[in-house]
Amino acid sequence: MIRALLAAAALLGPILAPGGRAAEPGGALRVELNRLEPREGGACRVWLVLGNRGTGALDPVRLDLVLFGRDGIVARRVAVDVGPLPAGRTQARIFDLPGLDCGTVGQILLNDLLACGGTEPAARDACMDRLSLASRVEAVPFEK
Predict the structure, then answer these.
(1) Low-confidence residues of the chain, pLDDT below 50?
(2) DSSP assignment, residue 18?
(3) C-alpha torsion 53→57→59→64, nearest 10
(4) Sign of CA dihedral 117, 31, 19, 5
(5) What pLDDT, on the 0 to 100 scale, is given for residue 27?
(6) Largest alpha-carbon pair distance within the chain?
(7) How far, in Å, CA of 78 to CA of 134, rounded?
(8) Paired residues of 92 in beta bridges
(9) 130 in helix, strand or coil?
(10) How far apart are CA 142 and CA 20, in angstroms?
């Protein structure tokens, strides 16, 4: 019985983090929609804040985003390169969307990860599993 308990503890030791919580392989990856800023000429500037709490840098990192209007209809689809993301760092990334009024954006969907430390499916899936999304923009959810 004791031998079985010791064997189970040896197997679970690397899986459990301090405090008995499951360890996150590679650490958390957070993407926050921080701000939508109207620009001259009818463009919308999108501010993203990304945090890589993992132990390794992620390069490349590319997001496939779908923006919906307030009416729920797709307004735009865009691929955004936001890498590299150094380990243990938080960084802001900005990009402009010409011809899009920020006031018409009702939701942003992270449709897919096109790359996350690599373009192969295993690398993208590992990032998706540890990814959390948030939005600070009132009435504009950011979801996956």
Answers:
(1) 1-25
(2) G
(3) 0
(4) negative
(5) 85
(6) 73
(7) 19
(8) 49
(9) coil
(10) 30
